[in-house]
Amino acid sequence: MFEVAVIEDPAAAEVSLDPVRARLLAELAEPASATMLAARVGMARQKVNYHLRALERHGLIELVEERRKGNVTERMVRATAASYVISPSALAAVQPDPARSPDQLSVRWLLAVAARLVRDVGALVTAAARARKRVATFAMNGQVRFAPAADWAAFARELAESMAALVSKYHDETAEGGREHRVVVAVHPSVKTETAETETVHIR
After folding, report:
1. Burial class (CB in 10 A: 0-12, 13-18, 19+), 102
2. Full-model pTM
3. What percent of the chain has pLDDT over 70?
4. What is the mean pLDDT of residues 9-38?
5. Which residues are within 8 A (CB) of 6 and not within 5 positions of it... i.e. 6 or more apart?
6. 26-30 long-range CB contacts below 8 Å, 24 or more apart?
7. CA separation (Å) from 193 to 117, 156, 198, 202?
């Protein structure tokens, strides 16, 4: 089982977004049979089997083992990942494109950049899994609290200058055998989650 799997196929994305099937995926962090799941979610076994077939057909669950019980063969299945991310490539015709409006201060442009990041890294994850290789990536995650708005502007300016200097130092357009890497740096207000079910966004 992968820690995170990327869904790139539109049909698989549609299947995963069904509330009942999403619940079954969550229950299948550990192997279970249709009978076991039916008892957990309060549904008929035949109905659970119908949803499991759809999930398995799109590679979201996998067969772990088959157990013989009298004249019945019980199929134990498990989710292929602990969690899933739907890539913007699943909606290729309408996925965001940062090139359409490159405004560094636009929240929608930031969202488009983030969507491209999910799409690109998702493709890398999928390719690496097939090749049984690791992907060389690096990420930082932090938090900063600004007092006056002027501090935010100064921080953004210094960050941009520092990144430009760092990229200029290491970028080599003529490097033979070199591989391009995309650098993404983002700053946005923190989102505070009050409960697992209800998310409240505070904007000041």
Report:
1. exposed
2. 0.75
3. 94
4. 95
5. 84, 85, 86, 87, 118, 121, 122, 123, 125, 126
6. 28/61, 28/77, 28/78, 28/79, 29/1, 29/78, 29/79, 29/82, 30/78
7. 23, 25, 7, 10
